[in-house]
Amino acid sequence: MTDTTSPIAPIRTRAANQAAPGRTPWKVEAVGFVLGFAVLALLPLLFGDTYARHILIMAFIYAIVASNWDLSLGYGGVFNFGHLALFGIGVYAYSLLTKLAGIDPWAGLLASGIIATLAAILVTIPILRLKGIYIILVTFGFAQLVMQVILSQSDITGGTQGIVRIPGLYWFDHNMVRDGKFAYFYIALALLAASTLFLRVFVRSRTGASIVALRDNEEYAISRGVSIVRQRMLTLAASAFFTGIAGAFYAAYQRNASIDVFGMSLATIILSMVLLGGTSTIYGAIIASFVLTIFAEWMADFGAWRPMITAVLIIGVMLAYPSGLAGMIRSVWDAAAGKFKRTA
Amino acid sequence: MSALAEILFGGLFQGSLYAMMAVGLALVWTTIGVFNFSHGVFMMLGAYIAWQLVELGLPAAVAFPVAVVVMAGVGWILQASVVRPLIGRPNIVLVVVITTLAAGSLIENGALTIWGPRSKQIPALIDGNTTIGGVGVSLHQIAIIVITPLILAALWVFLNRTRLGLALRAVAQNEDASHLVGLNVTALYGLAFAIAASLAGLAGIFMGGYRFMSPVMGSDPLLKALIVVVFGGISSISGPIFAAYLIGFFEAACSYYFGLYWTPALLFGVLILTLMVRPEGIFSSRSRGLA
Fold first, then answer.
1. Which of B84, B70, B89, B90 shows the shortest CA–CA distance to B36?
2. B286 pLDDT exceeds 70?
3. Is residue A207, in this structure, part of any structural domain at all?
4. B97 and A274 in contact (C-beta within 8 Å)?
5. End-to-end CA gap in chain A
6. Exposed, middle or buried by CB within 10 Å (0-12, 13-18, 19+), for A37?
7. How many whole angstroms separate alpha carbon B89 and alpha carbon A124?
8. Does residue B105 sit at the A interface (CB-CB below 8 Å)?
9. A7 pLDDT exceeds 70?
10. DSSP one-letter string for B218-267
11. Average pLDDT taken over every residue of chain A
12. Higher pLDDT, A211 or B169
């Protein structure tokens, strides 16, 4: 608190308490990152059947969406409730570009990410001057608007019927359909790895620190020369790119698009992943996505009781561990990395 | 003439329902500083409890008040279980969003399991129809239009003229000072939730006598109540009430001239514009960025 000589020091102090960007040495994190994804990459060898792979692919998609939401919600403190609309925009952008415009699926994937980013910049304009619950409302309204537009343009978008027979991805001459979802698994994993790498580098950068500073002490951060307009736009745009790509991948993988992606139920599930995992960690949201997706499958036998059991568990975890699953894991990690840190 | 009557009547009716919902939301928001996402589910549960009591053979005059009282209890329990333990945590606003969403999902799926997906209807307050200004309306709707302002007025008197109501407002204004003067803040939190839940339950009973009920019937009114609360501001109880009627009229006019399809989009468009042009008029305690 007394250190006012260094311009960045107070921001770092605050950030270290709450979000801890740059708290773990980057070499340690890199080793953990590579090890974690290596384990994930070996999973198809363990799970031979198509259905288990399908569950993992869905978990990867959810993990991308949830971890990108953590960037705006957790780090940025911007309650963007239109995040799933960005995912939906990715779904529809890919579907329309590849099916109607007939462009290459991979180019469509990239274009969907860019379109979602542009949409995020557009939605940032009305919320630049707003705070808290008002941001929730405007972004929620944005999601509703996007849904209404898609519904009303049913000639192109299929309206409530959705779009079917969307072109899938390809990999040279590899047969994507009869490989037990082998190729889709690795594409999903690669997308998750790229997204996670991007998010972690972003939040550990100076820009990431300034975003956290804006969240924790807006007046002070502004007085230190951090632009709220630029940083907020940057945060939302950064959180949108891989979300849009995840939407495009989802459409390519499912081969159909429906208006359900804008529904409250999907938003609730993804939001519980972000909060259950613990905000401002990125990894927490990813872990919670795996846990919740696999848990939901594991409980498939419970039928109507499944959503109720999930709800009780979410409440239980939130009451017992306010910082979510990541809080539990981080304490273990810190204990293990404690020695390492002191010598580094 | 008939167009005006239709818009006026539709606006009054929808506005009444929105006002009942929004006031509860605003009450919880001002007192505890959280947003209750299970508020729509309260509405649904109130309607189903009333339906169940009528089905058991109770006359509507008994069943409806009992359902409202039961809803007060439900509100209290929900507050004690998923909101109170979180008070004092730094990220309470976000965490309460997810715990109340989860609790709402629990109740909604519970209702689906108990009562099934089949649509139900509860008896109207008054049977019969009439014609006013060339528009056919049911007496049930007229009863709602008349009763709602009375209930809202009673709530205003309670909050402004009784000791308990003033205590509630004191907690909303300054929690620390309320603790200092010896108010039981925990109990007042519960009371705010109980009042909100019973108002939502009553709105559900009103709606159940007019439209078919389903376990998801509360989600759209919740969304509308959210808009109303933000539009009208939260500093006083009259703000959301006026906004509720305003939005009721706006919706009625929109669906008359542009069709039901575009009404939600238009509503959100107007709202976003309002917030862009006058954010500080609605949310007074915010600080403006210099950029």
1. B84
2. no
3. yes
4. no
5. 25
6. middle
7. 28
8. yes
9. no
10. THHHHHHHHHHHHHH-SSSSHHHHHHHHHHHHHHHHHHHHT-TTTHHHHH
11. 85
12. A211
What angle do the packed helices B92-115 and A305-320 form, to 10 degrees?
Answer: 160
Amino acid identity, position A156 = I
- Rounded CA-CA distance A67/B244 in Å is 37
pLDDT at B23 over 70: yes
The b-or-e profile of A170-185 (16+ CB within 10 A means b, else e) is eeeeeebeeebbbbbb
Contact flag B86-A322 (C-beta cutoff 8 Å): yes
Do A57 and A179 meet the contact criterion of CB atoms below 8 Å apart?
no
Q: In the block, which residue shows the tokens 């938003």? A: A267
Residues of B in contact with A276 (CB under 8 A): 98
Measured between alpha carbons, how far is A149 from A159 in angstroms, rounded to an integer?
9
Distance to chain B for A130, nearest Cα, Å: 7
Q: Structural domain of residue A71, as residue ranges?
A: 46-261
Contacts of B99 in chain A (CB under 8 A): 314-315, 318-319
- Alpha helix locations (H) across A164-304? 182-204, 206-216, 218-223, 228-254, 264-277, 283-298
Domain-located, residue A132: yes
A291 located within any domain: no
Strand spans (E) along chain A:
none
User: d(Cα A254, Cα A181) in Å, to the nearest integer?
Assistant: 12
Confidence class of residue A341 from pLDDT cuts 50, 70 and 90? low
Q: Establish if A309 touches chain B: CB-CB under 8 angstroms.
A: no
Question: Rounded to 5 degrees, what angle do the CA atoms A36, A280, B39 make?
Answer: 120
Find where tokens 């009673």 sit: B154
Q: Is B264 on the interface with A (CB under 8 A)?
A: yes
User: How far from chain centre, in Å, is Cα B167?
Assistant: 22
At A311, the amino acid letter reads: A
pLDDT tens digits along B106-115: 999 899 999 9
Would you say A113 and A242 are in contact if contact means Cβ atoms under 8 Å apart? yes
Q: Which two tokens stand for residue B235?
A: 């500093």
Length of chain A as a residue count: 344
- Report the C-alpha gap between A198 and A71 in whole angstroms: 11
Query: Residue range B132-153: average pLDDT?
Result: 88
- Under the banding of pLDDT at 50, 70 and 90, the label for residue B54 is very high
In the numeric block, which tokens belong to residue B272?
A: 């976003």
Round the average pLDDT of chain B to a whole number and report it.
85
CB pairs under 8 A between A and B: 130
| Cα of B223 to nearest chain A Cα, Å | 9
In a domain, A303, yes or no: no
Q: What is the pLDDT of residue A49?
A: 85
Q: What is the largest CA-CA distance in chain A?
A: 64
Domain count of the fold of chain A: 1
